[in-house]
TrEMBL record:
Signal peptide: none annotated. Belongs to the major facilitator superfamily. Sugar transporter (TC 2.A.1.1) family. It comes from Companilactobacillus nuruki. One of its GO terms (molecular function) is carbohydrate:proton symporter activity. This is MFS transporter. It is a multi-pass membrane protein. The chain crosses the membrane at residues 12-33, 53-72, 84-106, 112-130, 146-167, 173-203, 253-272, 292-311, 323-344, 356-379, 391-414, 420-441. Gene3D superfamilies: MFS general substrate transporter like domains. It comes from the Bacteria. One of its GO terms (cellular component) is plasma membrane. Keywords: Membrane, Transmembrane, Transmembrane helix, Transport.
Protein backbone atom coordinates (compact mmCIF):
# COMPACT_ATOMS: atom_id res chain seq x y z
CA UNK A 1 0.00 0.00 0.00
CA UNK A 2 1.24 3.44 -0.88
CA UNK A 3 1.67 6.07 1.70
CA UNK A 4 -1.57 7.85 2.60
CA UNK A 5 -0.01 11.18 1.73
CA UNK A 6 1.02 9.91 -1.70
CA UNK A 7 -0.80 10.04 -5.00
CA UNK A 8 -3.08 7.15 -4.08
CA UNK A 9 -4.84 9.21 -1.42
CA UNK A 10 -4.36 12.67 -2.97
CA UNK A 11 -8.03 13.30 -3.77
CA UNK A 12 -9.14 11.60 -0.55
CA UNK A 13 -6.86 13.70 1.67
CA UNK A 14 -7.86 16.92 -0.05
CA UNK A 15 -11.57 16.10 0.23
CA UNK A 16 -11.24 14.99 3.86
CA UNK A 17 -9.64 18.25 4.98
CA UNK A 18 -12.13 20.40 3.05
CA UNK A 19 -15.13 18.48 4.42
CA UNK A 20 -13.66 18.74 7.92
CA UNK A 21 -13.89 22.53 7.63
CA UNK A 22 -17.58 21.95 8.33
CA UNK A 23 -16.49 20.55 11.69
CA UNK A 24 -14.19 23.54 12.23
CA UNK A 25 -17.10 25.94 11.68
CA UNK A 26 -19.26 23.81 13.98
CA UNK A 27 -16.59 24.21 16.66
CA UNK A 28 -15.92 27.92 16.11
CA UNK A 29 -19.55 29.00 16.05
CA UNK A 30 -20.38 27.01 19.20
CA UNK A 31 -17.19 28.16 20.95
CA UNK A 32 -17.14 31.85 20.05
CA UNK A 33 -20.25 32.57 22.14
CA UNK A 34 -18.20 31.58 25.19
CA UNK A 35 -16.24 34.84 25.11
CA UNK A 36 -18.57 37.00 23.04
CA UNK A 37 -21.55 36.50 25.36
CA UNK A 38 -20.04 38.54 28.19
CA UNK A 39 -19.45 41.52 25.87
CA UNK A 40 -22.77 41.39 24.05
CA UNK A 41 -24.58 41.14 27.41
CA UNK A 42 -23.38 44.61 28.48
CA UNK A 43 -25.99 47.35 28.76
CA UNK A 44 -24.32 49.33 25.98
CA UNK A 45 -24.72 46.36 23.63
CA UNK A 46 -27.59 43.83 23.66
CA UNK A 47 -28.23 44.06 27.42
CA UNK A 48 -28.81 40.33 27.92
CA UNK A 49 -30.29 39.00 31.17
CA UNK A 50 -29.44 35.41 32.26
CA UNK A 51 -32.62 34.12 30.62
CA UNK A 52 -31.83 35.98 27.39
CA UNK A 53 -28.25 34.66 27.48
CA UNK A 54 -29.73 31.18 27.49
CA UNK A 55 -32.04 32.00 24.58
CA UNK A 56 -29.25 33.56 22.47
CA UNK A 57 -26.94 30.59 23.09
CA UNK A 58 -29.62 27.98 22.58
CA UNK A 59 -31.14 29.61 19.47
CA UNK A 60 -28.19 28.30 17.45
CA UNK A 61 -28.73 24.88 18.95
CA UNK A 62 -32.44 24.92 18.11
CA UNK A 63 -31.56 25.82 14.52
CA UNK A 64 -29.04 23.00 14.51
CA UNK A 65 -31.79 20.52 15.46
CA UNK A 66 -33.73 21.49 12.34
CA UNK A 67 -30.61 21.67 10.16
CA UNK A 68 -29.48 18.20 11.18
CA UNK A 69 -32.95 16.75 10.67
CA UNK A 70 -33.41 18.22 7.17
CA UNK A 71 -29.85 17.58 6.02
CA UNK A 72 -30.37 13.88 5.26
CA UNK A 73 -33.25 14.57 2.88
CA UNK A 74 -31.30 17.13 0.85
CA UNK A 75 -28.06 15.12 0.96
CA UNK A 76 -29.92 12.16 -0.57
CA UNK A 77 -31.71 14.28 -3.17
CA UNK A 78 -28.96 16.66 -4.31
CA UNK A 79 -25.83 14.87 -3.13
CA UNK A 80 -23.37 15.40 -0.28
CA UNK A 81 -21.12 17.72 -2.32
CA UNK A 82 -23.86 20.17 -3.34
CA UNK A 83 -25.36 20.16 0.15
CA UNK A 84 -22.08 21.05 1.87
CA UNK A 85 -21.61 23.89 -0.61
CA UNK A 86 -24.96 25.39 0.38
CA UNK A 87 -24.09 24.86 4.03
CA UNK A 88 -21.00 27.05 3.46
CA UNK A 89 -23.19 29.79 1.94
CA UNK A 90 -25.55 29.77 4.94
CA UNK A 91 -22.57 29.84 7.32
CA UNK A 92 -21.18 32.96 5.62
CA UNK A 93 -24.39 34.97 5.31
CA UNK A 94 -25.70 34.12 8.80
CA UNK A 95 -22.34 34.96 10.39
CA UNK A 96 -22.33 38.43 8.81
CA UNK A 97 -25.91 39.03 9.98
CA UNK A 98 -25.08 37.90 13.55
CA UNK A 99 -22.11 40.28 13.68
CA UNK A 100 -24.32 43.17 12.53
CA UNK A 101 -27.23 42.44 14.89
CA UNK A 102 -28.60 45.55 16.54
CA UNK A 103 -30.71 43.93 19.24
CA UNK A 104 -31.56 40.72 21.06
CA UNK A 105 -34.31 39.71 18.58
CA UNK A 106 -32.02 40.02 15.53
CA UNK A 107 -29.22 38.10 17.25
CA UNK A 108 -31.56 35.28 18.27
CA UNK A 109 -33.01 35.05 14.74
CA UNK A 110 -29.69 35.00 12.91
CA UNK A 111 -28.14 32.62 15.45
CA UNK A 112 -31.03 30.28 14.68
CA UNK A 113 -30.29 30.52 10.93
CA UNK A 114 -26.59 29.97 11.63
CA UNK A 115 -27.63 26.90 13.59
CA UNK A 116 -29.19 25.41 10.44
CA UNK A 117 -25.70 25.31 8.92
CA UNK A 118 -24.07 24.06 12.12
CA UNK A 119 -26.57 21.19 12.42
CA UNK A 120 -26.29 20.26 8.77
CA UNK A 121 -22.48 20.23 8.96
CA UNK A 122 -22.49 18.16 12.15
CA UNK A 123 -24.62 15.49 10.44
CA UNK A 124 -23.18 15.65 6.94
CA UNK A 125 -19.42 15.88 7.56
CA UNK A 126 -18.83 12.59 9.46
CA UNK A 127 -21.21 10.69 7.15
CA UNK A 128 -19.57 12.15 4.03
CA UNK A 129 -16.08 11.32 5.33
CA UNK A 130 -17.11 7.74 6.11
CA UNK A 131 -18.56 7.25 2.62
CA UNK A 132 -15.52 8.46 0.67
CA UNK A 133 -12.93 6.62 2.81
CA UNK A 134 -11.60 3.06 2.36
CA UNK A 135 -11.94 0.90 5.46
CA UNK A 136 -8.25 1.13 6.42
CA UNK A 137 -8.40 4.94 6.77
CA UNK A 138 -12.10 5.44 7.53
CA UNK A 139 -11.76 5.87 11.29
CA UNK A 140 -8.91 8.37 10.99
CA UNK A 141 -10.76 10.41 8.39
CA UNK A 142 -14.02 10.52 10.36
CA UNK A 143 -11.94 11.51 13.39
CA UNK A 144 -10.48 14.43 11.41
CA UNK A 145 -13.90 16.03 11.71
CA UNK A 146 -13.89 15.50 15.49
CA UNK A 147 -10.41 17.06 15.72
CA UNK A 148 -11.47 20.01 13.58
CA UNK A 149 -14.48 20.63 15.86
CA UNK A 150 -12.15 21.00 18.84
CA UNK A 151 -9.67 23.03 16.74
CA UNK A 152 -12.49 25.41 15.82
CA UNK A 153 -13.35 25.83 19.50
CA UNK A 154 -9.68 26.43 20.34
CA UNK A 155 -9.33 29.10 17.64
CA UNK A 156 -12.52 30.74 18.94
CA UNK A 157 -11.08 30.80 22.48
CA UNK A 158 -7.76 32.25 21.25
CA UNK A 159 -9.44 34.97 19.19
CA UNK A 160 -11.79 35.78 22.09
CA UNK A 161 -8.85 36.13 24.46
CA UNK A 162 -6.69 38.19 22.10
CA UNK A 163 -9.48 40.53 21.03
CA UNK A 164 -10.87 40.76 24.56
CA UNK A 165 -7.43 41.58 25.93
CA UNK A 166 -6.35 44.07 23.26
CA UNK A 167 -9.70 45.79 22.73
CA UNK A 168 -11.64 44.72 25.81
CA UNK A 169 -12.59 48.32 26.57
CA UNK A 170 -14.39 48.53 23.23
CA UNK A 171 -17.72 46.88 23.98
CA UNK A 172 -18.63 45.99 20.33
CA UNK A 173 -15.53 43.74 20.07
CA UNK A 174 -17.89 40.74 20.17
CA UNK A 175 -18.92 41.58 16.60
CA UNK A 176 -15.35 41.01 15.38
CA UNK A 177 -15.14 37.74 17.33
CA UNK A 178 -18.18 36.44 15.49
CA UNK A 179 -17.26 37.84 12.04
CA UNK A 180 -13.96 35.94 11.91
CA UNK A 181 -15.92 32.73 11.16
CA UNK A 182 -16.53 34.07 7.63
CA UNK A 183 -12.96 33.22 6.65
CA UNK A 184 -13.19 29.40 6.97
CA UNK A 185 -16.76 29.38 5.60
CA UNK A 186 -15.64 31.14 2.41
CA UNK A 187 -12.68 28.74 2.12
CA UNK A 188 -15.09 25.81 2.49
CA UNK A 189 -17.36 27.20 -0.26
CA UNK A 190 -14.48 27.79 -2.72
CA UNK A 191 -12.91 24.37 -2.20
CA UNK A 192 -16.21 22.46 -2.16
CA UNK A 193 -16.29 22.62 -5.96
CA UNK A 194 -13.23 20.33 -6.20
CA UNK A 195 -13.93 17.64 -3.58
CA UNK A 196 -15.00 14.09 -4.39
CA UNK A 197 -18.64 13.16 -4.76
CA UNK A 198 -19.76 10.31 -2.49
CA UNK A 199 -19.52 6.97 -4.38
CA UNK A 200 -22.46 5.73 -2.27
CA UNK A 201 -24.65 8.56 -3.53
CA UNK A 202 -23.59 7.91 -7.14
CA UNK A 203 -24.60 4.26 -6.77
CA UNK A 204 -27.97 5.27 -5.34
CA UNK A 205 -28.50 7.51 -8.37
CA UNK A 206 -27.53 4.71 -10.76
CA UNK A 207 -24.17 6.16 -11.89
CA UNK A 208 -22.29 2.89 -11.41
CA UNK A 209 -19.39 3.43 -13.81
CA UNK A 210 -18.66 6.86 -12.40
CA UNK A 211 -18.90 5.50 -8.84
CA UNK A 212 -16.45 2.70 -9.63
CA UNK A 213 -13.89 5.04 -11.23
CA UNK A 214 -14.18 7.49 -8.35
CA UNK A 215 -13.74 4.70 -5.78
CA UNK A 216 -10.44 3.76 -7.45
CA UNK A 217 -9.28 7.40 -7.33
CA UNK A 218 -10.17 7.58 -3.62
CA UNK A 219 -7.92 4.60 -2.88
CA UNK A 220 -10.43 1.76 -2.59
CA UNK A 221 -8.90 -1.56 -3.62
CA UNK A 222 -10.27 -2.73 -6.96
CA UNK A 223 -11.78 -5.92 -5.57
CA UNK A 224 -13.35 -4.09 -2.65
CA UNK A 225 -14.80 -1.36 -4.86
CA UNK A 226 -16.25 -3.89 -7.31
CA UNK A 227 -17.76 -5.99 -4.54
CA UNK A 228 -19.33 -2.98 -2.78
CA UNK A 229 -20.70 -1.37 -5.94
CA UNK A 230 -21.94 -4.60 -7.51
CA UNK A 231 -23.60 -5.57 -4.23
CA UNK A 232 -25.32 -2.22 -3.95
CA UNK A 233 -26.35 -2.32 -7.58
CA UNK A 234 -28.84 -5.04 -6.68
CA UNK A 235 -30.33 -2.82 -3.99
CA UNK A 236 -30.61 0.49 -5.82
CA UNK A 237 -34.40 0.34 -5.98
CA UNK A 238 -34.65 -0.67 -2.34
CA UNK A 239 -32.21 2.00 -1.20
CA UNK A 240 -33.90 4.84 -3.03
CA UNK A 241 -37.50 3.83 -2.33
CA UNK A 242 -37.36 2.52 1.22
CA UNK A 243 -40.29 4.18 2.98
CA UNK A 244 -40.71 4.96 6.67
CA UNK A 245 -43.44 2.29 6.87
CA UNK A 246 -40.93 -0.26 5.58
CA UNK A 247 -38.31 0.99 8.00
CA UNK A 248 -40.57 0.79 11.05
CA UNK A 249 -41.73 -2.69 10.05
CA UNK A 250 -38.09 -3.85 10.10
CA UNK A 251 -37.11 -4.60 13.71
CA UNK A 252 -33.38 -4.53 12.90
CA UNK A 253 -33.55 -1.03 11.43
CA UNK A 254 -35.69 0.21 14.32
CA UNK A 255 -33.16 -1.20 16.78
CA UNK A 256 -30.26 0.57 15.04
CA UNK A 257 -32.19 3.84 14.98
CA UNK A 258 -33.01 3.63 18.68
CA UNK A 259 -29.41 2.83 19.59
CA UNK A 260 -28.25 5.75 17.44
CA UNK A 261 -30.59 8.03 19.39
CA UNK A 262 -29.29 6.66 22.71
CA UNK A 263 -25.66 7.27 21.66
CA UNK A 264 -26.58 10.80 20.57
CA UNK A 265 -28.20 11.45 23.96
CA UNK A 266 -25.15 10.09 25.78
CA UNK A 267 -22.89 12.55 23.98
CA UNK A 268 -24.87 15.61 25.05
CA UNK A 269 -26.13 14.90 28.59
CA UNK A 270 -22.48 14.97 29.66
CA UNK A 271 -22.76 18.74 30.13
CA UNK A 272 -19.86 19.42 27.77
CA UNK A 273 -21.52 22.31 25.99
CA UNK A 274 -22.33 24.19 29.17
CA UNK A 275 -18.57 24.60 29.54
CA UNK A 276 -18.06 25.39 25.85
CA UNK A 277 -20.82 28.03 25.77
CA UNK A 278 -20.62 29.48 29.28
CA UNK A 279 -17.00 28.79 30.26
CA UNK A 280 -16.01 32.45 30.55
CA UNK A 281 -19.04 33.33 32.68
CA UNK A 282 -18.48 30.20 34.80
CA UNK A 283 -14.83 31.06 35.47
CA UNK A 284 -15.77 34.65 36.29
CA UNK A 285 -18.21 33.30 38.89
CA UNK A 286 -15.38 31.48 40.70
CA UNK A 287 -13.33 34.69 40.82
CA UNK A 288 -10.97 34.60 37.83
CA UNK A 289 -12.01 37.93 36.34
CA UNK A 290 -12.89 38.76 32.74
CA UNK A 291 -9.42 38.60 31.17
CA UNK A 292 -8.26 35.71 33.33
CA UNK A 293 -11.32 33.71 32.28
CA UNK A 294 -10.69 34.39 28.59
CA UNK A 295 -7.09 33.19 28.84
CA UNK A 296 -8.07 30.20 30.97
CA UNK A 297 -10.33 29.16 28.09
CA UNK A 298 -7.27 28.99 25.82
CA UNK A 299 -5.70 26.45 28.17
CA UNK A 300 -8.96 24.49 28.21
CA UNK A 301 -9.22 24.59 24.42
CA UNK A 302 -5.57 23.72 23.83
CA UNK A 303 -5.75 20.74 26.18
CA UNK A 304 -8.94 19.56 24.48
CA UNK A 305 -7.33 19.88 21.04
CA UNK A 306 -4.22 17.90 22.05
CA UNK A 307 -6.40 15.30 23.75
CA UNK A 308 -8.56 14.97 20.63
CA UNK A 309 -5.49 14.22 18.48
CA UNK A 310 -4.15 11.50 20.78
CA UNK A 311 -7.62 10.25 21.72
CA UNK A 312 -8.77 9.74 18.13
CA UNK A 313 -5.61 7.78 17.33
CA UNK A 314 -6.21 5.57 20.35
CA UNK A 315 -9.88 5.08 19.45
CA UNK A 316 -9.00 3.95 15.92
CA UNK A 317 -7.00 1.04 17.37
CA UNK A 318 -9.38 -0.07 20.13
CA UNK A 319 -12.93 -1.30 20.55
CA UNK A 320 -15.17 1.74 20.16
CA UNK A 321 -17.79 0.74 22.71
CA UNK A 322 -15.18 -0.04 25.37
CA UNK A 323 -13.60 3.37 24.78
CA UNK A 324 -17.01 5.00 25.22
CA UNK A 325 -17.45 3.29 28.60
CA UNK A 326 -13.98 4.41 29.74
CA UNK A 327 -14.70 7.98 28.64
CA UNK A 328 -18.03 8.13 30.46
CA UNK A 329 -16.43 6.82 33.63
CA UNK A 330 -13.83 9.59 33.41
CA UNK A 331 -16.51 12.24 32.87
CA UNK A 332 -18.39 11.08 35.96
CA UNK A 333 -15.30 11.21 38.16
CA UNK A 334 -14.01 14.60 37.00
CA UNK A 335 -17.40 16.34 37.25
CA UNK A 336 -18.03 14.90 40.71
CA UNK A 337 -14.63 16.19 41.86
CA UNK A 338 -15.38 19.58 40.29
CA UNK A 339 -18.61 19.76 42.27
CA UNK A 340 -16.83 18.81 45.51
CA UNK A 341 -14.15 21.48 45.01
CA UNK A 342 -16.73 24.20 44.33
CA UNK A 343 -18.98 23.08 47.18
CA UNK A 344 -16.20 22.84 49.80
CA UNK A 345 -15.44 26.59 49.63
CA UNK A 346 -12.79 26.23 52.34
CA UNK A 347 -9.63 26.69 50.28
CA UNK A 348 -7.89 29.97 49.40
CA UNK A 349 -9.29 31.56 46.22
CA UNK A 350 -6.09 30.95 44.22
CA UNK A 351 -6.08 27.26 45.12
CA UNK A 352 -9.80 26.91 44.33
CA UNK A 353 -9.32 28.60 40.95
CA UNK A 354 -6.41 26.31 40.11
CA UNK A 355 -8.28 23.15 41.08
CA UNK A 356 -11.44 24.23 39.23
CA UNK A 357 -9.40 24.91 36.10
CA UNK A 358 -7.58 21.58 36.45
CA UNK A 359 -10.83 19.60 36.75
CA UNK A 360 -12.36 21.46 33.80
CA UNK A 361 -9.28 20.71 31.72
CA UNK A 362 -9.37 17.01 32.66
CA UNK A 363 -13.10 16.76 31.97
CA UNK A 364 -12.83 18.47 28.59
CA UNK A 365 -9.72 16.49 27.60
CA UNK A 366 -11.50 13.26 28.48
CA UNK A 367 -14.73 14.17 26.69
CA UNK A 368 -13.16 15.76 23.60
CA UNK A 369 -10.46 13.09 23.38
CA UNK A 370 -12.66 10.02 23.90
CA UNK A 371 -16.42 10.46 24.34
CA UNK A 372 -17.20 12.97 21.60
CA UNK A 373 -15.09 11.47 18.75
CA UNK A 374 -16.07 7.87 19.54
CA UNK A 375 -19.79 8.70 19.52
CA UNK A 376 -19.50 10.47 16.14
CA UNK A 377 -17.49 7.53 14.81
CA UNK A 378 -20.01 4.95 16.00
CA UNK A 379 -22.92 6.91 14.50
CA UNK A 380 -21.10 7.39 11.17
CA UNK A 381 -20.50 3.64 10.83
CA UNK A 382 -23.51 1.95 12.41
CA UNK A 383 -26.29 2.64 9.86
CA UNK A 384 -26.84 0.68 6.59
CA UNK A 385 -26.46 2.69 3.37
CA UNK A 386 -30.17 2.42 2.56
CA UNK A 387 -31.04 4.62 5.56
CA UNK A 388 -27.69 6.18 6.50
CA UNK A 389 -28.46 9.81 5.61
CA UNK A 390 -31.91 9.78 7.26
CA UNK A 391 -30.83 7.90 10.39
CA UNK A 392 -27.71 10.05 10.78
CA UNK A 393 -29.90 13.14 10.52
CA UNK A 394 -32.23 11.88 13.27
CA UNK A 395 -29.36 10.89 15.55
CA UNK A 396 -27.61 14.22 15.03
CA UNK A 397 -30.86 16.14 15.54
CA UNK A 398 -31.19 14.29 18.85
CA UNK A 399 -27.79 15.62 19.96
CA UNK A 400 -28.90 19.13 19.16
CA UNK A 401 -32.32 18.82 20.80
CA UNK A 402 -30.61 17.63 23.99
CA UNK A 403 -27.98 20.35 23.63
CA UNK A 404 -30.73 22.97 23.18
CA UNK A 405 -32.58 21.88 26.31
CA UNK A 406 -29.43 21.93 28.45
CA UNK A 407 -27.99 25.20 27.13
CA UNK A 408 -31.36 26.94 27.53
CA UNK A 409 -31.83 26.07 31.20
CA UNK A 410 -28.17 26.11 32.29
CA UNK A 411 -28.00 29.84 33.24
CA UNK A 412 -31.25 29.48 35.17
CA UNK A 413 -29.99 26.32 36.93
CA UNK A 414 -26.80 28.10 37.94
CA UNK A 415 -28.81 30.95 39.45
CA UNK A 416 -31.26 28.61 41.20
CA UNK A 417 -29.01 25.76 42.41
CA UNK A 418 -25.49 27.13 42.35
CA UNK A 419 -22.53 26.07 40.22
CA UNK A 420 -21.40 23.17 42.42
CA UNK A 421 -24.82 21.50 42.52
CA UNK A 422 -25.22 21.75 38.73
CA UNK A 423 -21.94 19.89 38.21
CA UNK A 424 -23.11 17.19 40.62
CA UNK A 425 -26.20 16.87 38.42
CA UNK A 426 -24.03 16.38 35.33
CA UNK A 427 -21.90 13.83 37.16
CA UNK A 428 -25.12 11.86 37.77
CA UNK A 429 -26.20 12.13 34.10
CA UNK A 430 -22.81 10.78 33.02
CA UNK A 431 -23.23 7.90 35.47
CA UNK A 432 -26.63 7.16 33.93
CA UNK A 433 -25.04 7.24 30.46
CA UNK A 434 -22.42 4.75 31.61
CA UNK A 435 -25.22 2.49 32.85
CA UNK A 436 -26.94 2.70 29.44
CA UNK A 437 -23.72 1.86 27.61
CA UNK A 438 -23.29 -1.21 29.82
CA UNK A 439 -26.88 -2.48 29.61
CA UNK A 440 -28.60 -1.20 26.47
CA UNK A 441 -25.91 -0.90 23.77
CA UNK A 442 -25.01 -4.39 22.57
CA UNK A 443 -22.20 -4.41 20.02
CA UNK A 444 -22.87 -7.91 18.71
CA UNK A 445 -26.56 -7.17 18.23
CA UNK A 446 -25.70 -3.91 16.45
CA UNK A 447 -23.31 -5.71 14.11
CA UNK A 448 -25.82 -8.46 13.35
CA UNK A 449 -28.63 -5.95 12.73
CA UNK A 450 -26.37 -3.96 10.37
CA UNK A 451 -25.31 -7.02 8.40
CA UNK A 452 -28.80 -8.46 8.07
CA UNK A 453 -30.34 -5.10 7.12
CA UNK A 454 -27.63 -4.48 4.52
CA UNK A 455 -28.03 -7.92 2.95
CA UNK A 456 -31.76 -7.54 2.32
Amino acid sequence: MQNRSGRKYGLLNYSAYVISLGGFLFGYDTGVINGALAFMSKTSQLNLTPSRQGIVSSSLVLGACLGAFLCGKYADKYGRKVTIRWVAVIFTLATVCCALSLNYIFMTTFRFILGLAVGAASSLSPMYLAEISPKEVRASNVNKNAIFIVLGQLVAFIMNALLGSLWGNWDPIWRVMILIACVPSIILWINSFNIAVSPNWLVQRGHLKRARNLAYRLGFKKQTANRIIDGRKKNIKTETKLTWNQIFSNKRLVYLLLIGIVIALIQQVSGINTVMYYGTILLEKVGMGERGSLYANILIGLTSFIASIFGTRMIANHNHLKMLKIGLMGNTIFLALLGVIMHANMLPQVVTNTLVLAMLVLFLANHQGIVSPVTWLIMAEMFPNSVKARFMSIATATTWITNFSISLVYPLLINALGTATVFFVFAITNGCSLFLSLTVINQEKMKKSYQESSSK
